[in-house]
Specification:
The longest helix has about 60 residues. The chain has a 6-stranded antiparallel beta barrel. Strands 6-7-8-11-10-9 form a 6-stranded antiparallel beta barrel. The chain contains 3 helices and 12 strands. The protein is elongated and about 100 Å long. The termini are far apart. The chain has a domain of about 180 residues: Rod shape-determining protein MreC, domain 1 (Thrombin, subunit H). Helix content is about 35%, strand content about 30%. It is α+β, with helices and mostly antiparallel strands.
């Protein structure tokens, strides 16, 4: 039986795997080079085209602006007044929308901060929302939606979310204290109320005093009294709660000193004490969410 003869032509055209791999790599390299050349030419052509058409486009825009300005001059005063009124109305709506968005962001930050509060010693935070305010005492008191059924009692400190330091450090600060309670609600007297009194400290001088609400809540400050003469209060100094009263966790921010009113005579003694003004970190009228620190009963 005759054996098959190999075809010399087919033998010459058969490539080895290494040759095929080399051909593939070469074709890929050629494609990449061509693509790079195409991209470069395209960017160059775009720049040249932009520079070439710039004078024509600029002239067209100047013509449009000139025509618009001329048309505006030719309009009567009533039409211009109506157009201006429309623009002012649109701007007012945009400003109102922006205010709403900012308020929502602030409320969201307050909620996150207050809900995430942890226990401080024997004090447990109870989250609450402001239910109502009396228009006659808007800055001085408000009612919250938690009461004695949640362990809240008169004298409990009330805090809200705020920013301290240079205005970028999130924290909670005292905004008032519970004045009276019912089963499901509680009335809070704010730091600006005449009913508010709290023992506080100045950590920088290690001195203490009594913080009282101002006689005029519209002044937006409280009076820090009975400071020793060596307290040396200065503007911008922070005021904190202290443990002396036993009704609030120590170290809670209360406010910042805004002025030093000088020396006043101590009642009934031949001594003197210092008195200064303290501004709360937040305006009580703008507070919507709070937390009440409830003391654990033994």
């Amino acid at each position: 039986m005759a054996s098959k003869k190999s075809n010399p032509y087919l033998d010459r055209t058969r490539y080895s795997p290494l040759q095929l791999l080399a051909w593939g790599a070469g074709l890929t390299l050629v494609f990449l080079v061509l693509f790079g050349i195409y991209s470069t030419l395209r960017r160059t052509a775009a720049r040249v085209s932009a520079d070439f058409y710039f004078p024509f486009l600029k002239a067209a825009r100047l013509s449009e602006n000139a025509i618009a300005d001329q048309a505006l001059v030719l309009q009567d005063k009533d039409t211009l007044a109506k157009a201006l009124q429309k623009l002012m109305k649109e701007n007012a709506m945009l400003a109102a929308e922006r205010t709403v968005v900012l308020d929502l962001k602030k409320e969201n930050a307050q909620l996150r901060s207050l809900i995430g509060l942890e226990r401080k010693g024997v004090f447990t935070p109870v989250f609450a929302e402001v239910l109502s305010r009396d228009p006659m005492t808007w800055q001085e008191q408000f009612t919250i939606d938690k009461g004695s059924s949640h362990g809240i009692e008169p004298g409990n400190p009330v805090v809200t979310s705020t920013l301290i330091g240079d205005g970028t450090v999130p924290a909670v600060a005292v905004i008032g204290k519970v004045k009276s309670v019912s089963r499901h609600t509680a009335q809070v007297c704010t730091i600006l109320s005449q009913d508010f009194k709290m023992s506080v400290s100045l950590p920088e001088s290690k001195s203490s005093g009594i913080l009282e609400g101002a006689r005029n809540a519209s002044d937006m400050y409280s009076s820090l009294k009975f400071l020793p003469l060596n307290a040396a209060p200065s503007q911008g100094q922070l005021v904190y709660t202290n443990p002396f009263s036993g009704n609030s966790p120590p170290g809670l921010p209360v406010g910042v000193i805004v002025s030093h009113t000088g020396i006043a005579p101590s009642s009934g003694r031949n001594q003197v004490y210092l008195e200064t003004d303290v501004r709360p970190f937040e305006s009580p009228a703008e507070v919507r969410f709070v937390a009440v620190y409830v003391k654990e009963k033994k």
